[in-house]
Structures are given as structure tokens and as C-alpha cells.
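Page 42, continued from yesterday. The earlier attempt failed because a stray header line got pasted into the input along with the sequence. Redoing it now with the clean sequence only.
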Amino acid sequence: MDLLSEPFVTDDDWGAIARTLKRHGATEDEIEFLAADSRVEINAMDSEQFIDFLKRKLAEHGVEKLIPDDAVMIRHARRVCEELLAEKALENESGHIRFWLRDVPLFGNATADTILRTLRSNPEGLTRTEINNLFGRNTQAADIAACLATLVEFGLATCRRKGPAQSGGRPAEIWVAR
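This time it went through. C-alpha cells are written below.
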């Protein structure tokens, strides 16, 4: 096939690897091939080469068709049905799930949970100053910033800038629950 090989180096113990391969049925020739300093990956073949190679190897080993037995087909059909029914059930219940989870503390972090709960009860959003005031200015700005970043990371809040401020300062940050 004239496929390009690529170098292969490992720091693993080849003795242990060879014993494992042998235990799982690999022949000495297969183990020796795998221990070589270079390899040809299957993805070095284009689609046509791979299909031809696969057909040739299956024919070489007397395999005509791969047909799963009835038990395998039944198990697969049941799994597909279960997945479809579960997906449908979740679709039907997603509104209820969102409603019941709305006030469940998510982070085990009182600051993040308080911010999220307050944002959800203020759909117009809160400024950073209003968020700081939730804690009577007793929580470090860095802690609040970290909690807001977490809420953004989990897709639970977003920030938009409104401004610039009339005083010529920074634009106001408006935080809104998603």
C-alpha cells in the first residue's frame, strides 16, 4: 500500500505490555510488530484503501458477513427504545424540572447562590454596585467577581455594559440571569 509510517516511542515497560497482549491472545508476530519503532496508523489510508484492506482481511479469515445474533439485536432495539422514551419523558418534564431547580443551591457557595437567586428575581438585572450591596459590602470584590465568573461559565448569568456613565466613568455592568 506504500503508506507512510510515523515514529513511535513510549516510556512504558514493553515487557509488561507484551505480557498483557499475550494474555489477551496476541501472537508473537503481532507483539513484535507492535514493539517496532514505527507504525502505520489506519487513518493513513484513504476511505477506498481502508475498505479494500478491510474486505481483503475479512476474506482472508473466511468472514463473509457480520450479522449480530438475535439477542444482540433485541438488546440494541430495547436500548434505542429506552433512550427515545427517556428523551421524550425529559422533554415533557423539562419545564417542571427547571421550576423545581430554580431555588436549589447549586454551588454550595452562599455568595454565588445569593447572587443567582437575586438575579432571577430581578429580570431587569442588577449593576455590580447593587450586587456588592447585597452583602452589605462585607464580601470581597474579588470573591464576588469569582462567583459572577462561575455563573457565566455555567451559562446561568450574563453581563452587558451600559454606558458610559454620565459622570464620564466606566460603563455600568448589568448582570442578568439566563
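Notes: The chain has a mean pLDDT of 86.
Reminder to self: strip header lines before submitting.
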